[in-house]
Amino acid sequence: MAFESLAEKLSASFKKLRGKGRLTEADIKDAMREVRLALLEADVSYKVVRDFIKRVTERAVGVEVLESLTPAQMVIKIVNEEMTALMGGSNSKININPKGPTVVMLVGLQGAGKTTNGAKLAALLRKQYGKRPLLVACDIYRPAAIKQLQTVGGQLNIPVFQMGTTNPVNIAKAALEYAKKNGHDLVFLDTAGRLHIDEQLMDELKNIKAEVEPNEIMLVVDAMTGQDAVNAASAFDNALGIDSIMLTKLDGDARGGAALSVRAVTGKPVKFAGTGEKLDNIEVFHPDRMASRILGMGDMLTLIEKAEQSFDKKKAEEMANRLKQNKFTLNDYYEQLSQIKNMGSLSDLAGMIPGMDAGALQGATLDEKAVSRIEAILLSMTPKERENPSILNSSRKKRIAAGSGTKVVEINRLLKQYEMMRDMARRINKSKNPTFEGIFGGKGRRGRGGKSPFGF
User: Fold this and answer.
1) CA angle, residues 308, 312, 318, in degrees to nearest 5
2) What number of other Cβ atoms are within 10 A of residue 135's Cβ?
3) What is the pTM of this model?
């Protein structure tokens, strides 16, 4: 999870405050000293940290906090508000061109993830707003850059415009004309990067900007490079005048200082964040939600949005009707397992739930090999067997095991987990108190053997 180390250190600082009834000014200054060290270790810019601590301290030593019945909560609230403001306050959207194709010019250093994340962003905007994106290969220098864009474009079913290794300015101009003629309302220019900032790179980008007049110049920066990302952002902004920032590689336990520094240093908003290697691992950057995650307060809105994106609405409605009729087949079981798997790692999801210790589930995922074996077992069954598992006797199980390349014991394990899921569905359907405690009769019980019905 992003910012895990920072979140743990801040949590430890606030825990000390919670242990005190009333707070003195000295208590707050001690806590702020620990917060300052935690932010600096996360590679947040020194100037940004200094200004942040000053603002929080000035508010926290006020009468409102020192005389509050819950002063520790007030301090955390202030830190949350100031951290949200530090990252931009609220989400900013793409600058849309109402009179023609919206042109987004992606810039950044080599290795930041422009090509892949630009394509991911195009797919996200197509899904959310019904756009018809076009990817444009303007990087004529990096070996296989055009091929990489074509590959990821093909995987996402997004067309790619390329003219080989001719002048990038001419490619951008021709792509814009092509977009107008073919009904593409969103154009992403994948420009060249360098291992370092140089005059030749900036001149080329300035020429592209002058020729096509992009609606948005989006800088793509690698969050894991910390302070170097902030320096790169400043350099690109000074030379080119960027409009927004996309942070990539925000899924690892990066020090994460870039996310907290780049907005304050450049004054330009972070609009999107790449959160993993999969082609759907990109999300809108919400400063308030990110601040809540960092402070261990969860992010239920993003969790709900992930669920909505992963779960097919029509299938969910069909499932609800089947539950009302107390019908839950092996097909239903596999469908639920697959859709939860699509939501991402358990540790990332846990970090969005208030009060949940994401560290306890670090690296936890649904075993993809296990899911593949379940799929093989299910596909080796007849439709009748999947709809009515009670008919699975010994000879049928042996046939299924042979057909799926598994063992009978694995089929029995699958059936046991399925029964647990079916029983849970029935309890939810019948319960007058459809909460965790109401369904299971007590806290902490996850099913037989201490495992969830999915076996993790």
Assistant:
1) 120
2) 26
3) 0.66
Q: How far apart are CA 117 and CA 331, in angstroms?
A: 34
Say how many C-beta atoms besides its own lie within 10 A of residue 354's C-beta: 10
**Separation CA 269–CA 93 (nearest Å):** 9
Q: What single-letter amino acid sits at 49?
A: V
Tokens standing for residue 323: 């539950």
pLDDT one-digit tens code per residue, 273-312: 888 888 888 888 888 888 877 776 654 455 555 555 555 5
354 touches 304 (CB < 8 A) = no
Q: Residue 43, class by beta-carbon neighbours within 10 Å (0-12 exposed, 13-18 middle, 19+ buried)?
A: buried
User: How far apart are the C-alpha atoms of 352 and 305, rounded to whole Å?
Assistant: 11
Q: Which of helix, strand or coil describes residue 126?
A: helix
Strand 282-284: give its sheet, edge to edge.
Answer: 160-161, 133-137, 186-190, 102-107, 216-222, 244-248, 270-274, 282-284
**Rounded CA separation 141/165 (Å):** 8
Distance CA 3, CA 131 (A): 33
Three-state SS at 258: helix
Place of tokens 């029509």: 314
* Nearest-10 Cα torsion for 157, 169, 263, 142: 70
Model confidence pLDDT, tens digit, residues 32-69:
888 888 888 888 888 889 999 999 888 888 766 666 65
